[in-house]
Every structure is written in C-alpha cells, then in structure tokens.
Amino acid sequence: MPEEIATDCVIEDERWEEAGLEGLAERAVEATLRWHEIGGEVVVMGCDDQRIAALNADFRGKPRATNVLSWPSVEHVPHAPGERPALPDEEELGDIAIAYETCRAEAKAQGKPFEHHALHLLVHAVLHLLGYDHQNDPDAEVMEATERLILQELHVPDPYDEKVQ
Fold first, then answer.
1. What's the predicted TM-score (pTM) here?
2. Sign (positive/negative) of CA torsion 105, 107, 109, 111?
3. What's the count of helices (H) and strands (E) in the chain, helices before strands?
4. What CA–CA distance (Å, rounded) separates 72 from 93?
5. pLDDT tens for the chain, residues 1 to 165
6. Residue 83 CA neighbour count, 13 Å, CB half
7. Which residues have C-beta within 8 Å of that of residue 145, sequence separation ≥ 6?
8. Which residue from 74, 13, 67, 75 is spatially nearest to 40, judged by alpha carbons?
9. Angle at CA 86, nearest 5°, toward 84 and 90?
10. Which residues, in sequence order, are bridge partners of residue 98?
11. Contact 116, 157 (CB under 8 A)
12. How far is Cα 51 from Cα 68, in angstroms, rounded to an integer?
C-alpha cells in the first residue's frame, strides 16, 4: 500500500480560495487516510452548484446540485452489510468535487460553522473513495461511526448529534 499522502486541490470557484479549501482538503484527506493507516493521492475540486449539477447529471443521472461527489479510482470489492470495506491498494484513490453554495447553505441551515461542515463532507467523500457506502442501514452506521472518529481527531463536533438526541 502507498505510504505517502498527497492532496491536489483544483479551485474552479474563487470563493473556495477564500474559504481555504486547500487546507481543509489536506486536513480531511490526511486525517482519513492516517486513521486507516494508508497513503494515497486524492484530487479535490472546489466548484459551484452549476458545475456540480452538471457532474451529477452526467455521472448519476440526477440533474441537480448536491453537496459533494466522489469518483473512486478502483471498483471496490463488495462486502457484507455492516463490515468495513477492503481498502484499495492504489496510489491514486480518486477525485472529489464539492459545491460552494450547497455547502454554505447546509452549514447555515444546520447552524454549523462552514469549516466544520466542509471538513465533514470531505471526510465523507474520502471514505467513499475507500469503499465505504451508506446504501443500507448497517453500512450507514459503520460509515457514520468512522466519520465521527475521524472528525473527532479534527476537533469537529459530531455532525450526527441531531440524530442521536
């Protein structure tokens, strides 16, 4: 498995520059990969809602904006519901796109700091690159628990707190 961690950040929307996407992406990628004790390279693109809506339409057949999308570099090996996925043994783990307007609106609606919400979405997307998913309840529980642990390392409060209360 690769040992070095690299994050390549592509900024298409200047608001991400002001928001510090490069630093946020590096923190999220590094924390997620270190937690899994692997290395790898992830490309993160900061874009706007219009661009992510086009990507969502092209790749998922859903012509609307979403908060984050991910494209793993490998086809993941299926795993039993509720089990952690087998980690990819690749240097290039995949690509992520994150939409500024949706991220900002969700953070505001949830009463969370923008930085915390962006870190959560980025950790979530990196986990998708590693083979995690939330297609069923057991997998969603494993993914959310893993997000909580990684975000705790980043000093981000539990993003699912509302669900637990």
1. 0.95
2. negative
3. 7, 4
4. 6
5. 668 999 999 999 999 999 999 999 999 999 999 999 999 999 999 999 999 999 999 999 999 999 999 999 999 989 999 999 999 999 999 999 999 999 999 999 999 999 999 999 999 999 999 999 999 999 999 999 999 999 999 999 999 986 433
6. 8
7. none
8. 74
9. 135
10. 46, 68
11. yes
12. 11
Q: Whose structure tokens read 């002001």?
A: 18
Strands 92-99 and 40-47: parallel
Residue 152 structure tokens: 């705790």
Beginning with the edge strand found earlier in the chain, give each strand of the sheet holding 5-11 in spatial order.
5-11, 40-47, 92-99, 68-72
For residues 81 and 70, give the distance between their C-alpha atoms in angstroms, rounded to a whole number.
Answer: 21
